[in-house]
């Protein structure tokens, strides 16, 4: 997207991006300072992750898009489950 999120980084570990080859995971966020993976998304399942605190600094609403995306994913998943069980 070209968007940059300012985050605090202090990891004791990180994901080797090459270990994601031939998986259903894709990288969504990369740290500009060292190239480490900061976010993942599953290509098929309603799952994603970031390796920082989206509710923290620099501002409490800067990463609201992640919470919005999570809520949308859960609503969509619930609707699919409802249709399957109908």
TrEMBL record:
Signal peptide coordinates: none
The EC number(s) given in the record are 6.3.5.5
**Is Signal a UniProt keyword of this protein?**
no
Residue limits of the Glutamine amidotransferase domain?
5-72
Name the top EC class. Answer: ligase
Q: Which InterPro entries match?
A: Anth_synth/Amidotransfase, Class_I_gatase-like, GATASE
Gene Ontology molecular function: carbamoyl-phosphate synthase (glutamine-hydrolyzing) activity
Q: Which Gene3D superfamilies match?
A: 3.40.50.880
Known SUPFAM superfamilies for this protein? Answer: Class I glutamine amidotransferase-like (SSF52317)
Q: Which family does it belong to?
A: Belongs to the CarA family.
Q: What is this protein called?
A: carbamoyl-phosphate synthase (glutamine-hydrolyzing)
